[in-house]
Amino acid sequence: MVVTQENVAVNGSRRLSPQEIADTLRERIRTGDLKAGDRLPTQAELAEEFGVERGAVRQALRALQEDGLLSNVSKGSPPRIAERVPGLSGEPQPTMVGLAPRLTEAFSSPHVRIDAACLTSETLMVALSEPVRLIHEGRIHPESIDVRILLPSRDINLAFPVPVEAPDDDNPVHQRWLEMRNAQGHVLRHNLRSLRSSHGIDVKVRFRALPFTPPVKLYLLNQAEALIAYYMVARREEATDTGILDMYDVLGTESLLFSFAKNAGERDAAFVVQSQKWFDALWETITTDLTLS
Question: HTH gntR-type domain location, by residue (predicted)?
Fold first, then answer.
């Protein structure tokens, strides 16, 4: 079974939000998996697929309706995909929206190479579920997949997320981040490694630990495209079993993703080359082995 964000909680209780469900469906529409005129599954079927209550599905469908992606919306039957679907523009997209179609295109190559430097692998984990699904459906057929991921070391004092007020003892915000980092990494690695036995694909998934908190997230696809987004730090609260965490944190899935392609001119090509050199230098020098506990 392919383990995804839809059926594995990263902290034992986390569920996909309506926005994340809407983003997943939106990408299926924009990549052509759901075509104009197609009828969506029922709310019950979607709730079962994503492991959520129907209320979350209804909110997600409402968001898609507001975006003009659905038509024939009624209580009597599932809506259809609108005949005229707004296309992707050259403008930057939220990371959760923009990454999946770029990864899907990268996975159409016989030899896939993905390098990523980020705070956690949550966005990458979710976005990879789309090309993995297409591989299982036989629609794309890579021969090899090589994924390298740089994540902050567990032993450093992170710049973010951090408590607004320094804790007296153990840092619950750091522990929360560490659990998420490890759980998401395990899911990502499992999803890709399972392709070895199911499809005979040569898969490598490697992690190394950064000695600093990355201020941006960077994705390098097949050494031909660089995607970069800034982490926007904000104060927020989160309810946990032990109380309220008041912290300075980032919402990486909502950061705007800027794309630079080697074939888009000298400026973009230089950015891709230098970004790849930067990543390779970190991988080969000051980073250390990372074990997901």
Answer: 15-84
Look at residues 210, 212, 245, 249 and name the one whose alpha carbon lies nearest to residue 232. Answer: 249
Q: Which helix (H) or strand (E) holds 221?
A: strand 216-221
The pLDDT value given to residue 3: 39
For 39, which DSSP code? B
**Is residue 55 a part of any domain in this protein?**
yes
Q: Which of 18-32, 103-117, 244-258 has the lowest mean pLDDT?
A: 18-32
Region of 282 (left: φ > 0; alpha: ψ -120 to 50; beta: rest) is alpha
> What's 31's domain CATH number?
1.10.10.10
**Dihedral angle computed from the Cα positions of residues 20, 190, 53 and 76, in that order, rounded to the nearest 10 degrees:** 80
Across 32-41, 99-108, 251-260, least confident range: 32-41
| Helix (H) or strand (E) segment spanning residue 218 | strand 216-221
In a shared domain, residues 151 and 25: no
Mean pLDDT over the full length of the chain: 87
Strands 111-117 and 144-152: parallel
As to burial, measured by CB atoms within 10 angstroms (0-12 exposed, 13-18 middle, 19+ buried), residue 75 is: exposed
User: What tokens appear for 158 in the block?
Assistant: 């992170």
Q: How many CA atoms lie within 13 A of 9 on its CB side?
A: 7
CATH number at residue 222: 3.30.870
**pTM for this one?**
0.70
DSSP string, 63-111: HHHHTT-EES--SSS--EE-SSPPPP-SS-EEHHHHHHHHHHHHTTSSE
226 pLDDT higher than 60: yes
User: Helices 122-136 and 172-199 sit at what angle, rounded to 10 degrees?
Assistant: 20
Give the percent of the chain with pLDDT over 90: 59
